[in-house]
Write a structure and sequence with these properties.
Layout (H helix, E strand, L loop, with lengths): L6 H4 L2 H10 L14 H8 L26 H11 L8 H22 L14 E3 L10 E3 L24 H21 L24 H17 L4 E8 L14 H15 L7 E7 L9 E5 L3 H10 L9 H13 L5 E8 L9 H5 L6 E7 L7 H10 L4 E4 L2 H15 L3 E2 L4 E4 L9 E5 L4 E8 L9 E5 L13 E6 L2 E7 L8 E8 L2 E6 L9 H15 L4 E8 L13 H10 L4 E5 L4 H10 L4 E6 L9 H9 L5 E6 L4 H9 L2 E7 L3 E3 L8 E3 L11 E5 L4 E7 L4 E7 L5 E9 L6 E3 L5 E2 L7 E3 L12 E11 L3 H8 L6 E2 L2 E2 L2 H11 L6 E7 L15 E3 L11 E13 L2 E14 L8 E9 L2 E8 L17 E6 L2 E8 L6 E7 L7 E6 L7 E4 L3
Parallel strand pairs: 3-4, 3-6, 6-7, 7-8, 17-21, 18-19, 18-20, 20-21, 30-38
Antiparallel strand pairs: 1-2, 4-5, 9-28, 10-28, 11-16, 12-15, 12-28, 13-16, 14-15, 17-27, 22-25, 23-24, 23-26, 26-27, 29-31, 31-36, 32-35, 32-37, 33-34, 37-38, 39-40, 40-43, 41-44, 42-43, 44-45
Helix pairs in contact: 2-3, 5-6, 5-7, 8-9, 8-13, 14-15, 17-18
């Protein structure tokens, strides 16, 4: 592979000329060749030697070897040399050859500004979109065969995970592949292998049919899906260049934020799995040996913390060396699958480069995260790297989002799906957040991830999860795994969980709770189970780490067993005792016994409710002293007496009695599944509900009555406002993956967010309804305009990292907060493909975002939200992607041509220009190398440079008249039709 990210465009010069004679391509949603018919014809005519990464192989077909060998002949020759099921590892070679073919074709489409190919799934009656050789558009493939269930994942009713290797899958799937080649041919064309009527039935000619590429895309999907279920050796490829010492807007340095995100990733690896994790750090060179060797999941978090503790930021940036050393590390591992998680905050400035390393990555999966400012990251290179290796690229300058994106990489590598995960703020005086809801449907396991920005004491923020029935998930339960880190909490729940699985699970971020004062008596609920559930939630909030010793007293307990005693407190406590949230329960029978228990025992949790008596009791003074002490236990208190002793007990519990009595309704969506509770009058109880009011800022009213008064009061530990996110991860049907519609985006061209549900995740019968939308977050100003305004000075070193002038300026702007302004708009996503019955359904959801929305250069985050409904059950899925929009060179850019003094008999011309888009926004300084400058005639480029550090460029060319009119052509990647031709002589 070539070393420059722009170099490979030059190998398509022949293709570009052919494409320009066949069609024109302009900005916006209109496509020059929507079905790729002309594109395919131009592509197959290319000589193989002109395509980067393609090499002619020894001729194995009949007849003389062609010279040069074309793309079409390359395909034919492979099949001649590799008959089905021959030779060792044949299935793997089958997949690898077609993957190479598709990558080359997609790169060609990028070079002419066309969108990438999407998967077409063969099935009975499936419509074939492109016309070819007499076949009309959308001709039905009447006899095509659907993908067998053996090539789907278990969540979609398949057994794909049971194959031992990719090669075994290839050996098994080739029969289906061959059959559908013939069935597609039968949908139009003669089926012959000669002349202009040849079609998909013949290896000599099948790549000339545009459906060939869309059809073969599914074989990529199949092998990628299989790999996600395999034991994996993973390496985190970690940038420690000097720029990682820069501060972040949230406090600390980029290095601090990256270490935290890596620690979260290590804790996400499930205990008991056979995955292994390693670490390679890089700056000018990469660590060798690895900073952390491949380590078992059980030992990885501690080992990674130790390894990262010695990492400091210094030196230049060689991303390629990091990738090469990481590939060496994972290749030496014993697990069948390899994966890399690449984190970098800048642009490579030291060899080896990404392009150099990429050729040696093989089938290794790569997920890349860029941590930095727009224009200061190698976004196009990183996205190209990730997508070629089956992964995704995402970027952010925000340290909390960095952790969120590491979770996205975990989901990308390990076949888990992302549910709801908005970034929210928990106010300092609030003890629990609003719920994040995940609707489960046949999920095998649920993983909830809570993360926040700055380190807190362990337990200062944690997850509280409730099942679809409203029952709390106890963190100490044997079916639950709970992992607390300095800025995260991860909870895994095996399903079914006490018989529960499908339905709405709720997850909240909660601060430590110290106690509750309930303004209702034990038997006040019309729905007894609702009251018991509420107490269970209170016990769960207080006893997150378990309460081994519980003291529980209710007055006038006349019955021998709690089964006979109709109490919501008893039901909750003894039910939770079976789930290990509470241990030994001491239950005094009389007021005197309760007083003695208070004197002699120490308890983790005190539960007290008085509703029948109206008089002073012998325990009043000691109970109030216990509740007022500095070492008081966690407590749940309810006392409806109007005595002085009761007032003292409530006061020490943090509450005052209010004026309102005996209300019949309580509202509190956090506390009740229905959001409302009905209270009933009790003839034998004078006060069955009463108002409670807080007496300190750490006491919060959490439910209100129908009279607007407080019904439940909570005491807890307040804190500062905390930004956080909660992500739900699961394995199940309906995985949503981002799809890169175009490789290059420019200002005032339509963005085209596209998301895909691969066939391997599509359940039998599909879904009844699908609602999909995408939030597009764009920069709120032009980076190029900002840099043109402040100008660039000479580059500098940031802790030894040689930064370009543009990177240095961007770092200053980021530190000042200038580049963090963004705005978000939601757009609907549409599935406008077709299937056999004519309904819209091609598994791709997409939308043309209006051209004026992409008005500024920089990263655009695409966050998709899907709601997939089958029957009465709906599940939520999410996916995220970052695309980079660059300033479009428009016809408003003027070129000044200035003749200079000839040198050694050659004419010299200086061409000056300030690239701007149609709105007049400048490209800004430091990007002249992103422009493709080619020549016509006897022209040599002597120099190209920034003129003033504000976005004006100049090209110095020497020329003669020996080969016709001397011309410079200036264009941008993927937009050959928009090239600007500058004549150096009229």
């Amino acid at each position: 592979m070539k070393n420059s990210r722009w170099q490979y465009w030059r190998v398509y010069s022949v293709a570009i000329v052919l494409a320009l004679t066949a069609s024109t391509s302009g900005p916006g949603p209109a496509l020059a060749d929507p079905n790729h018919e002309a594109d395919t014809a131009n592509w197959i005519a290319l000589p193989l030697s002109s395509i980067d990464g393609f090499f002619p192989t020894a001729w194995s077909c009949s007849g003389a070897a062609p010279s040069p060998q074309s793309v079409l002949q390359f395909h034919r020759n492979w099949h001649c040399a590799n008959p089905d099921h021959t030779g060792a590892n044949w299935g793997n070679r089958f997949f690898g050859f077609h993957k190479q073919f598709l990558l080359g074709y997609d790169r060609y489409l990028t070079s002419v500004g066309e969108p990438h190919i999407q998967t077409w799934v063969a099935a009975p009656g499936a419509l074939i979109p492109p016309a070819h050789s007499g076949r009309p558009n959308d001709a039905p493939c009447t006899t095509c065969q659907a993908l067998p269930s053996s090539f789907k994942l278990p969540a979609a009713g398949g057994t794909l995970d049971s194959f031992a290797s990719v090669s075994a899958i290839g050996d098994a799937i080739v029969g289906w592949h061959n059959t559908n080649h013939g069935r597609i041919a039968a949908a139009g064309g003669t089926g012959s292998c000669s002349g202009s009527s040849a079609d998909m039935n013949c290896p000599s000619w099948s790549p000339r049919d545009p459906i060939f590429y869309r059809y073969h895309h599914i074989f990529d999907d199949v092998q990628d899906a299989w790999r996600t279920h395999q034991a994996t050796d993973i390496a985190i490829v970690f940038d420690r260049s000097g720029s990682m010492s820069l501060p972040t807007s949230g406090g600390g340095t980029r290095l601090d934020a990256a270490k935290s995100a890596a620690g979260l990733f290590a804790d996400l690896l499930e205990d008991g799995s056979s995955h292994r994790l390693g670490l390679v750090t890089f700056s000018t060179t990469a660590s060798s040996p690895a900073t952390m060797p491949l380590t078992t999941v059980a030992s990885a978090p501690a080992a990674l913390t130790t390894a990262l503790s010695g990492v400091t930021a210094n030196g230049n940036t060689s991303i390629g060396d990091g990738l090469q050393k990481a590939q060496t590390l994972v290749t030496g591992g014993s697990n069948p699958r390899k994966a890399l998680l690449l984190l970098t905050d800048g642009m490579e400035n030291t060899a080896p480069t990404i392009a150099t390393a990429q050729g040696g990555l093989g089938d290794t999966h790569v997920c890349s995260v860029g941590f930095g400012t727009p224009g200061g990251l190698d976004g196009p290179k990183l996205r190209d790297l990730s997508e070629r290796q089956g992964g995704i690229y995402i970027s952010t300058p925000n340290s909390l989002e960095l952790k969120k994106f590491f979770v996205f990489c975990f989901a990308d590598i390990f076949d888990t799906f992302v549910g709801e995960d908005p970034i929210q703020t928990l106010p300092g005086a609030t003890l629990a957040s609003a719920p994040t809801i995940h609707t489960a449907y046949e999920d095998h396991k649920l993983v909830f991830v809570l993360s926040w920005t700055n380190p807190l004491p362990v337990g200062a923020l944690r997850l509280a999860i409730t099942t679809p029935s409203g029952a709390p998930v106890t963190l100490t339960d044997p079916a639950v795994e709970s992992t607390l880190g300095p800025t995260w909490h991860i909870v895994r729940v095996k399903t079914p969980f006490y018989g529960e699985g499908n339905g709405r699970w709720e997850a909240r971020a909660v601060r430590p709770h110290r106690g509750y004062v309930n303004g209702f008596s034990s038997n006040a609920f019309e729905d007894f189970s609702q009251g018991a559930s509420l107490i269970r939630h209170q016990v769960d909030r207080l006893c997150a780490k378990g309460c081994k010793r519980v003291l529980y007293y209710e007055d006038e307990m006349a019955h021998d067993t709690f089964e006979d005693h109709n109490s919501i407190y008893a039901t909750a406590l003894y039910g939770d005792a079976g789930r290990r949230i509470v241990g030994a329960i001491t239950r005094p029978r009389t007021a005197g016994e309760f007083a003695e228990a208070l004197k002699t025992g120490r308890f983790d949790l005190l539960v007290y409710s008085s509703q029948f008596t109206e008089k002073d009791q012998p325990y009043d003074d000691i109970l109030s002293r216990v509740l007022c002490s500095r070492t008081k236990p966690l407590s749940i208190i309810s006392d409806n007496r109007e005595t002085q002793g009761a007032q003292a007990i409530l006061r020490c519990a943090g509450a005052l009695r209010g004026e309102a009595k005996n209300f019949t309704d309580m509202q509190g969506k956090e506390l009740f599944t229905s959001g409302e509770a009905k209270l009933k009058e009790q003839n034998h109880v004078k006060v069955f509900s009463y108002e409670v009011r807080p007496i300190s800022p750490n006491s919060l009213v959490q439910a209100t009555s129908d009279q607007g008064t407080g019904a439940i009061l909570t005491q807890g530990a307040s804190g500062k406002d905390e930004e956080f996110f909660i992500t739900a991860l699961t394995r199940g049907a309906g995985r949503v993956k981002p799809f890169t519609y175009r490789s290059q985006y420019y200002t005032f061209e339509s963005l085209h967010p596209t998301f895909h549900i691969p066939e391997m995740y599509w359940p039998d019968g599909g879904y009844d309804t699908i609602e999909a939308s995408v939030d597009v977050t764009r920069p709120a100003q032009s980076t190029g305009r900002l840099l043109a305004k402040i100008g660039l000075k000479e580059g500098s070193k940031i802790n030894g990292d040689s930064a370009t002038p543009r990177q240095t300026a961007l770092a200053r702007l980021e530190h000042a907060g200038t580049l963090l302004k963004t705005e978000t708009k939601r757009f609907p996503l549409f599935d406008d493909g077709t299937n056999g019955d004519g309904t819209a359904n091609d598994r791709y959801w997409e939308v043309n975002v209006p051209e004026d929305f992409a008005a500024y250069d920089g990263p655009y985050q695409l966050h998709a939200y899907f709601r997939l409904c089958k029957g009465s059950v709906c599940v939520d899925r999410e996916a995220e992607q970052t695309v980079t929009v660059e300033t479009k060179l428009s016809d408003k850019t003027t070129f000044t041509v200035e003749p200079q003094q000839p040198i050694r008999g050659r004419n010299i011309t200086r061409v000056r220009f300030t690239p701007t888009d149609q709105a007049g926004s400048p490209m800004g300084p430091g990007l002249i190398d992103s422009l493709l400058i080619t020549v016509q005639g006897d022209v040599r480029i002597a120099a190209k440079r920034d003129v003033d550090g504000r976005g004006t460029y100049e090209v110095i060319a020497s020329w003669s008249s020996l080969k016709g009119t001397p011309v410079l052509s200036i264009q941008q990647v993927g937009r050959p039709a928009d090239a600007r031709r500058i004549k150096l002589r009229e």
